[in-house]
Write a structure and sequence with these properties.
The protein is 40% helix and 19% strand. With 151 residues, it is of the alpha+beta class. A four-stranded antiparallel beta sheet has the order 2-3-1-4. It binds 2'-deoxyadenosine-5'-diphosphate (DAT) and magnesium ion (MG).
Length: 151
């Protein structure tokens, strides 16, 4: 299997709304493997680094205030196609446009409170994992389920 890793974060709204287990369960049941997890309150400067690609957008300041407003659950998930499929799982940026069945479609209503972040490609996945985690915080292990998930 061609394993890849993606960065997934439950934003402060998802944490406050008690959706941590719901979100983790969806990735876990799918067959993706959790290789890093922690809960942190990012500083505003850290949020600005995380969202640096969006610094010219009018919502950038509010977005960074929001991400740094409370605890975030930061995770790295591993699996075949996890970057692209993770995005599909999460749904469209604006929950009004997210399909039912997706995380945002099922659990969120407005774009400014869309509960979850997921890396949008291999390069951003690498950058975001490096920003949020030290190498020693990533745990490589074999899951006994893998032979049943991948054959
Ligand atoms: P995504 O989180 O789906 O990767 P993005 O990278 O374009 O979306 O934007 C990052 C976050 O910024 C997004 O999750 C919510 C917020 N955002 C995006 N577009 C917005 C808008 N038009 N108004 C307010 N917030 C917005
Ligand atoms: Mg994005």
């Amino acid at each position: 299997a061609e394993m890849e890793r993606t960065f997934i974060a439950i934003k402060p709204d998802g944490v406050q709304r008690g959706l941590i287990s719901e979100i983790i369960a969806r990735f876990e049941r799918k067959g993706f493997k959790l290789v890093a997890i922690k809960i942190v309150v990012p500083s505003k400067g850290f949020a600005q680094k995380h969202y640096h690609d969006l610094k010219e957008r009018p919502f950038f300041n509010g977005l960074c205030d929001f991400l740094s407003s409370g605890p975030v659950v930061a995770m790295v998930w591993e699996g075949e196609g996890v970057i692209k499929y993770g995005r599909k799982f999460i749904g469209a940026t604006d929950p009004q446009k997210s399909e039912p069945g997706t995380i945002r479609g099922d659990l969120a209503v407005v774009v400014g409170r869309n509960i979850i972040h997921g890396s949008d490609g291999p390069e951003t996945a690498k950058d975001e994992i490096n920003l949020w985690f030290k190498p020693e915080e990533l745990v490589a292990y074999t899951s006994n389920a893998e032979k049943w998930i991948y054959g």
